[in-house]
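Handout, section B. The chain below has 482 residues.
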Amino acid sequence: MNKGWKTLAWVAGGVLAAAIWSTAAPTQAWAAETAALYVDGERSELQARSIGGTAYVSLETVAALGGAVKADRDGKTYTVSAGRKEVRFTVGEKQRFVDGVPVTGDETAELADAKVFVPAAWMTGTLGLKVVKDRFTDSIYIFKQKNDGTTLPSSLPSGATASTQEVVAAPGATPAGETPTGPTQGGPPSDASSQQPTIQTIALEGDALHIAATANVTPSVFVLKSPDRVVVDVPNATVVRDANGKASGSVAVDANHPYVAGIRYSLFATEPSTVRIVVDLKRPKPYSLKPAPNGAVLHFTQAEPVKVVIDAGHGGNDPGAISASGKYEKDITLPVALKVMQRLEAEKLIQTVMIRENDAYLSPAQRAAAANAAGADLFVSIHANTASSPAVKGTETYYWREDSLAFAQRIHASLVQTIGSADRKVKQERFVVVRETSMPSVLLELGFITNADDEAKLYNEEMQNRIADAIVASIKAHFNIP
């Protein structure tokens, strides 16, 4: 089997030119009804379905509407991107990743008539679409964005009635994605929005970006690459509009600033009302977001390198678990740990400490003591699991102290998405290496090598590379390292 991505290729106008589909896709789990699809008011032959009142579109339709569709080689995981915005999902799973952020909902991507269909609502932010569902005829209306950033009028044919539960709008979202969707055009904020905190000032002072609001807010932050940006989202908030009703703008930045190229803001979404602040960077820069009375402060830091301990489980005369075909667990843990080390060595803000770099054995107590003696900031122990039943499969992540939970949840979500096995959750256990270490610590059980599917994945070098990438990305995210 070819390695890497399987790509769906399309020609102009949305006609399918070639598609590489996996035969490993799950069997159809639900009955879907064909729905009439209208694009910008015109009847379209593109494929859509209605299930339980929810609008679904095929991946061919997604591509015809401007999405670049890639299929992972397992035939179940897909990525749809437009510009710098993307959504990644696995058929049949409720969790998806929007620009790398896990999102869980009630709907899942499904297989119907040997084709993959996704909820149309998933595509609104990524592709800059507006989707309206006629609840009486089950027709689906999609309105694409004009070149000027506005959407076409979402009027329905005479007699059609939009379902209030199925109207999903991207308020002016640009396909490029990282730029805020553009302000909602019109008059002053409604009464509802006026009751929300209003962002009053955004000011860069030295290495700190101060965000002031009329009441307390709960912002979140993430980074985007190519080019480098730090993005702050302030949900359940609005922003002061100018005399023309525009709810977006920019903050003046000295052209000679050492690392900030520009700052812009906009009312990014209306449900919930969300203000997005984008800091364009000249180069990657560590940061931290801290709450402040009626606002927040984004600090750009001259961070000292953090110290991360990577522990390859077992080794030497301790082979660990024995796989379904007689292979050793230690022959997974060390290769993955070395791949993580190689990647971390390229990070100037991370100092890596390896518990072992060869086929040697240390006791769990020795491993914990070595991490403590190193003064580490984070400890990651890599393992594979075993069970008496070959049917048991999946990924587990263990922690003990509460200061380890947030990182455990972050890295677990990433590994479940990467490996594609069952999600056996984050669990609290008194394992020595997570109990006796003095820093946030996790023990990763990547999969059950007594299960044939998990075994095949974990001994595959390409999968090991992807697992290493996921571990490194989680470590960097934990320390807010761009």
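Note. Residues 1-30, 146-194 have pLDDT under 50 and may be disordered. Compare this with the example in section A.
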